[in-house]
Amino acid sequence: LDNPVITVHQSIGEAKEQFYYERTVFLRCVANSNPPVRYSWHRGREVLTQGSDKGVEIYEPFFTQGETKILKLKNLRPQDYANYSCIASVRNVCGIPDRSVIFGLTNKTASPSIKLLVEDPIVVNPGQTVSLVCITTGGEPTPILTWVSSNDTLPQRSVVNGGTLTLPAITSDEAGVYSCVASNNVGNPAKKSTTIVVRGRKA
Questions:
Q1: 3-state secondary structure 122-177
Q2: CB-CB contact of 6 with 88 (8 Å)
Q3: What pLDDT is recorded for position 60?
Q4: How far, in Å, CA of 171 to CA of 128, rounded?
Q5: DSSP, residue by residue, 24-78
Q6: Which residues contact 31 (CB under 8 A, 6 or more apart)?
Q7: How far apart are CA 118 and CA 167, in angstroms?
Q8: Among 5-9, 42-46, 97-101, 137-141, which stretch is predicted with the lowest mean pLDDT?
Q9: pLDDT at 203
Q10: InterPro entries of this UniProt entry (predicted)?
């Protein structure tokens, strides 16, 4: 049984500016496991069950074969800003203990947004050191930044320090598209990309 992960979604088409103001929000809990998982939701210390609170619905979307538990908060109320925990249980099969995860929903909870402080494209000479800087401009909880490259893996000598990716003594093999991705389990991850062009040597 893996640790469960809570992701937060919002019904489509609602104004982005007021992400969590009188809005319907979905908390989705997923844990990979075999045997299948049974999920339970708590708000603070209170166990949430279907029908226990008229502002809350708990359901299993039919297309996930009951593996995923979704908690729907209808028109957020002040008491909905709380710590939610999802407990994933395989009912002690083979002595596997339950796993749980907590997500704190606040009126500031928001999906990530980022900015790349670089040109696009970046044209460099072979052997130059290139630094790409990505900063978070929004998102609560604080997004985690990662770098990915169109070559599937970042160059071996590359150094990632927070939102900064440094490519020392770049080679033409390392040219390509580099993307900064920010994720905080709210909405979709944010992604911004830039292309590095390494000048070829004239024959």
A1: EEECCCCCEEEEEEEEEEECCCEEEEEECCCCCCCCCEEECCEEEECCCCHHHCEE
A2: no
A3: 66
A4: 8
A5: -EEEEEE---SSPPEEEEEETTEEE-TTSSTTEEEE--GGGTT--EEEEE-S--G
A6: 1, 2, 3, 4, 5, 37, 39, 88, 99
A7: 14
A8: 5-9
A9: 45
A10: Cell_Adh-Cytoskel_Orgn, Ig-like_dom, Ig-like_dom_sf, Ig-like_fold, Ig_sub, Ig_sub2
Quote the percentage of the chain above a pLDDT of 90. 61
Residue labelled with tokens 């939102």: 163
Helix (H) or strand (E) holding 111: strand 110-116
* All residues at 6 or more sequence positions from 17 whose CB lies less than 8 Å from its CB, including other chains: none
Could you report the per-residue pLDDT of 55-82, keeping only the tens digit for each? 888 876 555 555 678 999 988 889 999 9
State how beta strands 83-89 and 38-43 pair.
antiparallel
| Backbone angles phi and psi of 108, in degrees to 5 | -105, -5
**Structure tokens given for 36:** 């299948």
State the pairing for strand pair 122-124/190-198: parallel
C-alpha gyration radius of the chain:
22
* Whole-number Å distance between alpha carbons of 26 and 41: 13
Task: Record the tokens describing residue 83, joined without a space.
Answer: 């710590």
Q: Considering the entire predicted model, what is its pTM?
A: 0.83
Residue 21 has pLDDT above 70, yes or no: no
Name residues whose C-beta falls within 8 Å of residue 37's C-beta, 6 or more positions apart in sequence.
Answer: 1, 4, 31, 67, 88, 89, 90
Q: Which amino acid is at 189?
A: P
21 vs 199 pLDDT, higher one: 199
Q: Give strand pairing partners of 83.
A: 104
